Amino acid sequence: MKTEKVLTFGIDIDGTVTSPSSIVPLMNECFGKDLRYEDCYEYNLANVYNISDAEFNDWLDQYGGRLYDESPVHGNADQILRKWYTQFKLVYISARDARHRDVTLNWFSRFDIPFHEIDLVGSHDKLAAAQKWQVDLFLEDRLENALQLSEALQIPVLLFDTPYNQATLPALVHRVTSWDDVEEKVKELALERTSL
Known about the structure:
It is a single chain. By secondary structure, the protein is α/β, with parallel strands linked by helices. The protein has 2 domains: 134 residues, HAD superfamily/HAD-like (Rossmann fold); 48 residues, no CATH class. The chain is built from 8 helices and 6 strands. The protein has a 6-stranded parallel sheet, sandwiched between helices.
């Protein structure tokens, strides 16, 4: 009897497992702005807040730990990830720096979000990590990552709909609006995969 391979899901953390709007209140507080999440029309928030990339990096260096600690869960991500834990291998691949591992692990523990691996790559380029973990599907909110991963690995990518990732998408990238939407799409894709 043939045993089916357990599918490995690569999952971004910020804006995917955490609410994509969670960075806005903290940036408003620190930069004296009153922007809304809907005003974040591009991923590079330095441009949105009219600051330099260096200023943004300094800000993230100073406030990253607080941001990662205070971010709320994105919708019902925690419930769905708990369901998936026994069905799929869950590998979180994040651009967070390795020095934020403790705050990341504490956050996952506080919200009872299960994982098999957490890989903090310290860069937006997640391709090498996705290859290393042999992911079969990726969940992401950054358009450039979704395009790169789907094209290079020829895997489906579920892209959370945000103001900063609007574009025409290739066939392997699927726009989703909620974690319920993600769960439905995963069921569809799993059916497609088993029929190959």
